[in-house]
Amino acid sequence: MSRRFERKSVIVTGAGSGIGRAAALAFAAEGARLIVADVNQSSGEDTAQQIRDFGSDATFVRTDVARAADC
């Protein structure tokens, strides 16, 4: 990988599963630091842990994008 996101921070919403999780893992593989946002705490934490196990930095933030206060 090119590590083209080295020293960059990325927020991925819906990162607990599906396309959001795949995007978060892809950004991590490219060197990004991640904010993993999802309404489901368990799956969001799982994604963040997978990223940390990969050797990248990730923080989970419970977020419901339907609520303006969460965003």
Summarize it.
The chain is built from two helices and three strands, in the order E-H-E-H-E. By secondary structure, it is α/β, with parallel strands linked by helices. Helix 1 runs parallel beside helix 2 (41-54).
Number of helices: 2
The CA-CA distance between the termini, in Å, is 31 Å
Range of helix content? 25-40%
Which whole number gives the mean pLDDT? 95
> Going across the major beta sheet, what is the strand order?
1-2-3
Structural class: alpha/beta
Bulk shape: globular
Oligomer: single chain
Q: Spell the H/E element sequence.
A: EHEHE
What gyration radius follows from the Cα positions, in whole Å?
11 Å
Provide the low-confidence segments as ranges: none
Number of strands: 3
Proportion of strand residues: 15-25%
| Biggest beta sheet attributes | 3 strands, parallel
Describe it.
This protein is α/β, with parallel strands linked by helices and 71 residues long. It contains two helices and three strands. The chain has a three-stranded parallel β-sheet with strand order 1-2-3, covered by helices on one side.
